[in-house]
Amino acid sequence: MLDIKLIRENPERVKKGVFAKGVNPKLVDEFLVLDEKWRDLTKKSEDLRAEQRKAGEVKDVEKAKKLKDEIKGLEEEFLATTQKRDTLLLEFPNLPFEDVPVGRDEAGNKVLREVGKKPDFGFEPKDYLTLAKNLDLIDVEKAGEISGSRFGYLKNEAVLLEFALVDLAMKTLIKEGFSLIVPPVLVKPEIMKAMGKSNFIKDKDAYHITEDDLYLVGSSEHSVGPYHMGETFNEKDLPKRYVGFSTCFRREAGSYGKDTKGILRVHQFDKVEMITFSKPEDSEKQHQFMLSMQEKLMKALELPYQVMEICTGDMTFADARQYDIETWLPSENKYRETQSVSNTTDYQARGLNTKYQTRDGKKEFVHMLNGTAFAIGRTVIAIIENFQTKEGKVIVPKALRDYVGKKEIG
User: Fold this and answer.
1) Catalytic residue positions?
2) Where do the domains of the chain lie, and which CATH numbers do they carry?
3) Which stretch of DSSP H or E encloses residue 375?
4) This model's pTM is above 0.90
């Protein structure tokens, strides 16, 4: 959530920031009205309690009883106002950094660089589904019969590719100071909201288990991020980095008609995710470091990709800055998103009450960052398409061969 003090003291900056994120700036005015009422009720309540204490000290029973009734009546209004104010606060997105490209949608995103050589096959490349079906690697038909649309089975060498990717990511990131973690995939509603995922819920993109009132995570970030909820780091222990693996779940509610075939956009997928807790002054440097880790992994696979800086209107609700990596898909003759890395500044930490203690003893909110190491399904797709042969086989990237146990699939 945003710092309430920032909204009070710099409402025009907040209006500009939320507008850039596609949110009506009138939200700021509505909040300030509620906040002013909340502060007024807080003062009245404190004044009445002070009077009540004095009445008790001088044994004025009648006045103390009268004040008690007034306080009780005020409390009901105070609680209702607090609830409205806190609910409205959850509708504020994080503010983008001043130098983030301004745009309404993905058309406003900026290409920073292209890396790697696109394959020149000398033949008409097949799409990954055709190749995978012929090689018995992916089965979406049977998944459709059993689970419905937007599900798929990975089979045979595709399974080996999945765990080879996990192995590569984990071993690479351990050397860079990341701690391994496998988190729960179900979290409480208050945790999801504290992580700034109210829109994930409101847009009905999150799967909700009604009987237990729990949400399935859409990313490892959703359950690794709260791991240090309510805790205070020592400054010397930052940055604290985790790499987590989990299955993720999304309804893809806003993607009707998009990528309905195959496993590019599915309801269930596996992902290796990086999470960093950082000092505020270091978070931009940590963001660049995490992006460099993504690029290191992509270069290890020898896949052609481009790095995008995401504009204000296309970035995630909780982000202050976001980069995406898009990998080349020959069958579509274009780049498609495979990884994302985000700096959420203190937005999530404030909701989780995760702080660090400075050398002079002050307690400040940490900055939290998250980034995809590998979205498994999409990376498998990119490997199949970019390393296909004229004979319809797939060459295994050198970095994965020891784990897969072969140089070629087919």
Assistant:
1) 250, 265, 337, 340, 378
2) 4-89 (1.10.287.40), 106-409 (3.30.930.10)
3) strand 367-375
4) yes
